[in-house]
Write a structure and sequence with these properties.
The structure holds 2 protein chains of 2 kinds. By secondary structure, chain A is mainly β. In chain A, 0% of the residues lie in helices and 55% in strands. Chain A is globular and about 40 Å long.
């Protein structure tokens, strides 16, 4: 069963618009990772969140972790064509994390110029 | 650092043939992971190593799949015999520590395997 659900599955936005991608876990989160993937390429690490309420930003991308809701959100401000790609969330779901990092199926983002 | 290096980038093989995928992790990283990505199932963890020792191989689909890490700088994933349903992109990733690292897991560019 899928333990990490991402929504939406795909998203098309106009350049300059803001957007939010969500990642919800069916289990307690012990670490939440956001990655970006372009077609045919590997995953690029964006940021990692460990504590409830934690928020991190990198350029125009902000991620938050809501531990109680077992959910994380990724927000992009003033989207650009360079933001296009597949965004994946990954999570440690074991206490002390033995490296069992699972991933959602991803959100495909297209940005129209 | 050149990052995690995987070879080959693309592999096309006939059903029944043996396939070997290779990975060189980032120097100094003590965790190495093998993932498989398909449209249907997304990204799945196959096996991971800590200090060259396999820790969890519960994600390996069948006995046809095997992975080794003979030293800290090299790992292989072998499929024998290969089947069309093995077609996927296989990623290798390495990390210093999954628990405390703020750098996440570093992924290679992947090997796109097609079994015909």
């Amino acid at each position: 069963s899928q333990e990490l659900e991402q929504s939406p599955q795909s998203l098309i936005v106009q350049e300059g618009k803001n957007l939010t991608i969500n990642c919800t876990s069916s289990k307690t989160l012990y670490g939440l990772y956001w990655y970006k993937q372009k077609y045919g390429e590997g995953l690029i690490f964006l940021m990692m969140l460990q504590k409830g309420g934690e928020e991190k930003s990198h350029e125009k991308i902000t991620a938050k972790l809501d531990e109680k809701k077992q959910q994380s959100s990724l927000h992009i401000t003033a989207s650009q064509p360079s933001h296009a790609g597949i965004y994946l969330c990954g999570a440690d779901i074991n206490v002390g994390s033995q490296g069992n990092l699972i991933f959602g199926k991803g959100t495909k983002l297209s940005v129209k110029p | 650092d050149a990052g995690v290096i995987q070879s080959p980038r693309h592999e096309v093989t006939e059903m029944g043939q043996e396939v070997t995928l290779r990975c060189k992790p980032i120097s100094g990283h003590d965790y190495l992971f093998w993932y498989r990505q398909t449209m249907m199932r997304g990204l799945e963890l196959l096996i991971y190593f800590n200090n060259n020792v396999p820790i969890d191989d519960s994600g390996m689909p069948e006995d046809r799949f095997s992975a080794k890490m003979p030293n800290a700088s090299f790992s292989t994933l072998k499929i024998q015999p290969s089947e069309p349903r093995d077609s996927a992109v296989y990623f290798c990733a390495s990390s210093l520590s999954p628990v405390i690292s703020n750098y996440g897991y570093t992924f290679g560019s992947g090997t796109r395997l097609t079994v015909v």
